[in-house]
Design brief:
By secondary structure, the chain is mainly α. It is about 65% helix and about 0% strand. The protein has 9 helices and no strands.
């Protein structure tokens, strides 16, 4: 009498590598192309005073700015849609995006930007670090849009804020050592990035409104007939006179919150990412082989 055949082995899901658990949203070809396009348009939109020749009368087209803002907003929405659809995000990933965006939007009114106290920036740095550049850009843009709705800050500056915050958060995901660097070294890296990026964010946002300052402040306003070095000097003077204090407060606030709350927030984000099992591919292995 022959023995009954052994049952088929139960499917064993293969564990996902560490890198796949860290980057919930990957930049694939279409989303990467959309991101490059919107970034290129953003560079032109921010830097047109420095890119145009001195003889160009661009100041006469200041009334066309709302059209540029609208086009930039459409491109930002396209990047978000392409990244989410192409990455095949599951409901857990979309839920995490919503929770982090809502948390960041709720943190923004705290301090109301007084003296640069904006705690949402440290959360964007830590989230971008854990979840990668793709998720970081989407999260930064969506968070800024949600916070504008919450605080009533909807205006022609909003697309520029969304783009700048997307770059800010994406940059944290591009920092070196996303898998192996941990502990004090990682915190110092994130704090240094947050400090520098806070100044970069303020400087980039200054470029959005500086060309339309007018002739009220002749020493620091944009001069369409001046050469590039002269306008660069005016722009530096404008940043020092108008936003240096706020940028310094934002940078210091980001550093302090990163060093104080960073370990706990990083652990929580990494634990949530592992439990959500982003991009975990289920394969079937035969343990007898």
């Amino acid at each position: 009498m022959s023995a009954a055949p052994a049952p088929d082995p139960a499917p064993v899901p293969a564990p996902a590598p560490a890198a796949s658990r860290i980057r919930a949203v990957r930049l694939r070809p279409r989303s990467l192309a959309a991101l490059v396009l919107v970034s290129a348009v953003g560079v032109v939109a921010f830097g047109w005073p420095f890119l145009a020749p001195p003889s160009t009368r661009l100041s006469a087209h200041a009334q066309d700015a709302p059209w540029l803002f609208a086009g930039l907003l459409v491109l930002l929405v396209a990047v978000v849609a392409a990244t989410i659809s192409e990455s095949d995000l599951g409901p857990k990933a979309v839920a995490m995006l919503g929770v982090l965006a809502a948390t960041g939007a709720a943190l923004r009114p705290i301090g109301a930007g007084t003296a640069g106290i904006e705690p949402m920036f440290f959360l964007m740095v830590l989230s971008g670090r854990v979840l990668g550049p793709g998720f970081g850009f989407v999260l930064g843009s969506v968070t800024m849009f949600a916070s504008a709705l919450l605080t009533g800050g909807v205006g022609p500056w909003l697309p520029f804020q969304m783009l700048s915050m997307g770059w800010f958060t994406m940059g944290a995901g591009l920092l070196p050592g996303p898998v192996r660097l941990r502990g004090r070294g990682e915190l110092l890296l994130l704090a240094a990035y947050g400090f520098l990026a806070a100044f970069a964010y303020g400087t980039i946002m200054n470029m959005a409104g500086w060309p339309f300052l007018g002739r009220a402040a002749t020493n620091i306003s944009f001069d369409p007939h001046a050469a590039l070095p002269a306008n660069l000097a005016r722009f530096v003077a404008y940043c020092v006179a108008t936003s240096l204090g706020w940028d310094l407060g934002r940078a210091v606030c980001t550093v302090l919150l990163t060093l104080a709350l960073g370990p706990a927030v990083l652990r929580a984000l990494r634990r949530a990412t592992r439990r959500a099992a982003f991009e975990t591919a289920v394969t079937f292995e035969d343990p007898t082989v």
